[in-house]
Design goal:
The chain has 179 residues and is mostly helical. Helices cover 66% and strands 0% of the residues. The protein has 7 helices and no strands.
């Protein structure tokens, strides 16, 4: 017999993988033939940060790293750079879940905005340092803005459609273990 908590964890791992594949698929198909002035939000990062702040066991670090490394390869970014930066950002936020658990959503949103801005600056700095061509600054800033605008929507869908909510202080599972 399978433990219900383990089954739930595996189910959310599969849902996370399915969302990741769908997001990467839609990023790869050519929806527009002319270049755009606006970049679409990075929904994969929104999901990683939103789920990591609510239920970090639903987004294990190794799974995040593998999916982001595959995304780097498919989206023709320098392999491992964005993956490493996003994993560092997710772990930075994950280490502060106790603090963010009791704060209101606008402060959580501000913390995520700071992490996304730090990822953008670090990515550009490393690309400059190794003399790699980098995306236009305007496109990077619009992607940051649209990602920040999409974050509350991802949180709402995660909470009300998927049932992923913040763990209350002192909450225990069915066996009495702290979550």
């Amino acid at each position: 017999m399978v433990d219900p908590a383990l089954r739930t964890k595996w189910l959310y791992w599969l849902i996370f993988c399915a969302f990741s594949v769908a997001i990467l698929f839609f990023q790869l198909i050519p929806l527009q033939t002319s270049p755009s002035n606006w970049a679409m939000p990075d929904l994969l990062v929104c999901i990683i940060f939103a789920w990591g702040l609510r239920r970090s066991d639903y987004t294990p670090v190794l799974l995040i790293a593998i999916i982001l490394l595959v995304a780097d390869m498919l989206l023709m970014r320098p392999p491992g750079l964005m993956a490493g930066l996003i994993v560092l950002g997710a772990e930075f936020l994950r280490a502060r879940t106790q603090l963010l658990r009791e704060l209101p959503f606008p402060l959580e949103w501000a913390m995520v905005a700071g992490v996304l801005l730090a990822i953008l600056v670090a990515n550009r700095f490393v690309l400059i340092l190794v003399m790699q061509p980098r995306p236009d600054l305007w496109l990077s800033l619009t992607q940051l803005i649209t990602t920040l605008a999409a974050y509350p929507l991802v949180v709402l869908v995660s909470r009300f459609v998927l049932g992923i909510r913040k763990i209350a202080t002192g909450e225990v599972d069915a066996l009495g273990h702290r979550i």
